[in-house]
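stage 2 :: seqdesign
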């Protein structure tokens, strides 16, 4: 039977721990709320998601360049951007159990005393909503006083606005062009997190695309489509993805349009990425406050204007969680059941498992040779010579490894190896010298396999 949504989430969490994707942070000290560490498979998954994003957004385009700005900026930045005054969630407190909850997410919250109950259902009275700023405050330098206050950035976007002129001039770009950045952001989130869906530190992937104001609507539509397509290309279930345009009253005051790419998680539909038209709000505010004119001057038309900005903003950890949930399947076979992660090969932590059928007769040496060749092609491999071959395949299925190569007794005579594909479990004999090309072709040709619904 397909897992229910609650079971599915538990199963994904337990697989993440068992196989070294995600661990609770500070676990031996009892953990720390909403904070996680990524193990050997998890860190590879994150790296691949970041690479897939960077390749699509920067490497494959002429009009987008990258940036890596500092986490701690001049505190004026956050006053001017509106974060000091306004980056807050409305919170309510329970007078009985002392729980604190986001007033706009009460339906997702649980009472700390009675986790089966919603806030207030423990019999306590909830206070009126109060504003709670999400930025982490710290101090820079040896003195702790108001003069040394600094903030850990709650978004990477401001670092991009601050460098708008630097990047445009250094790269000799003119609108429309974009600046992309991947990096850590910090928010003192209060709502319980649904595993790594909402954490206090997380990695964001944001791109600010600067356009002539008259073209902003066209580019907003373009980026909505382009970002949605990226998730489809990486194999997410189209039936569990949707674009949701924000209603007028949901829009930030400076935005003329915002649309969320949402995924249907086991705990309901949730935002995976937001695409917003931020107009010229940020550049204008920083121009006014700093006295530096953050405008584009076109030497040909002699026109001077503040570009509008279209911003696709996603979270790398949330993307990784989405790929994990979407890829997870417990598949009944004839005699048993296998747990498999049907990752797109581009995001799979390991691309090829390499096995000698048995640990003798030159098979390990041949397998090592094949592995070296794959690594020369920058493929991530895993060599395993322990235990029955079926068990070794199952372990790779569970890690989401799309291909396995097995060297057997015949290989030493005919130089053919068995290549096994994860999703179909189909096996094929391939010349050992052609393995790298075979895998490269199979990665390109991969299609999401038909699956039972959960
Ligand atoms: P939410 O309404 O869920 O708090 P948001 O609208 O404030 O999110 P944005 O500021 O638009 O989120 O951030 C862009 C992206 O960054 C989100 O779509 C999400 O993928 C990711 N993100 C935001 N907050 C978190 C978090 N606390 N943990 C993990 N990822 C996050």
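stage 2 :: out
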């Amino acid at each position: 039977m397909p897992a229910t949504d609650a079971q599915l989430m538990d199963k994904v969490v337990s697989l993440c721990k068992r196989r070294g994707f995600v661990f609770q942070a500070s676990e031996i000290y009892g953990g720390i709320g909403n904070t996680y560490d990524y193990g050997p498979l998890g860190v590879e998954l994150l790296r691949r998601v970041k690479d897939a994003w960077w390749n699509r957004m920067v490497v494959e385009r002429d009009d987008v360049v990258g940036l890596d700005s500092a986490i701690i900026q001049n505190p004026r930045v956050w006053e001017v951007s509106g974060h000091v005054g306004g980056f807050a969630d409305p919170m309510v407190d329970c007078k009985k159990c002392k729980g604190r909850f986001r007033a706009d997410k009460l339906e997702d919250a649980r009472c700390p005393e009675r986790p089966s109950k919603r806030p207030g259902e423990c019999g306590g009275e909830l206070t009126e909503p109060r504003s709670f700023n999400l930025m982490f405050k710290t101090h820079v330098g040896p003195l702790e006083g108001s003069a040394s206050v600094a903030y850990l950035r709650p978004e990477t976007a401001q670092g991009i606005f601050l460098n708008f002129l630097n990047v445009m001039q250094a790269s000799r770009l003119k609108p429309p062009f974009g600046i992309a950045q991947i990096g850590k952001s910090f928010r003192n989130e209060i709502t319980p997190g649904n595993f790594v869906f909402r954490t206090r530190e997380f990695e964001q992937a944001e791109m600010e695309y600067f356009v002539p104001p008259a073209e902003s609507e066209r580019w907003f539509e373009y980026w909505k489509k382009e970002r949605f397509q990226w998730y489809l290309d990486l194999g997410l279930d189209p039936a569990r993805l949707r674009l949701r345009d924000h209603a007028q009253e949901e829009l930030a005051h400076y935005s003329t349009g915002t649309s969320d790419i949402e995924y249907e998680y086991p705990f309901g539909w949730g935002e995976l990425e937001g695409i917003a038209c931020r107009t010229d709000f940020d550049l204008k505010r920083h121009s006014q406050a700093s006295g530096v004119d953050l405008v584009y001057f076109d030497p040909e038309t002699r026109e001077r204007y503040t570009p509008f900005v279209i911003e696709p903003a996603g979270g790398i950890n949330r993307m990784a969680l989405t790929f994990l949930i979407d890829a997870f399947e417990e598949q009944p076979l004839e005699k048993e059941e296998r747990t498999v992660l049907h990752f797109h090969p581009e995001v799979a932590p390991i691309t090829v498992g390499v096995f000698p059928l048995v640990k003798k007769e030159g098979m390990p040496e041949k397998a090592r040779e094949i592995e070296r060749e794959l690594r020369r092609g920058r493929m991530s491999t895993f060599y395993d010579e322990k235990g029955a071959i079926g068990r070794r395949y199952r372990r790779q299925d569970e890690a989401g490894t799309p291909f396995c190569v097995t060297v057997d007794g015949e290989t030493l005579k005919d130089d053919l190896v068995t290549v096994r594909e994860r999703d179909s479990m189909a096996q094929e004999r391939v010349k050992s010298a052609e393995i790298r090309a075979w895998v490269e072709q199979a990665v390109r040709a991969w299609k999401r396999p038909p699956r039972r619904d959960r």
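stage 3 :: structure notes
- The radius of gyration is 25 Å.
- The CA atoms of residues 374 and 436 lie 6 Å apart.
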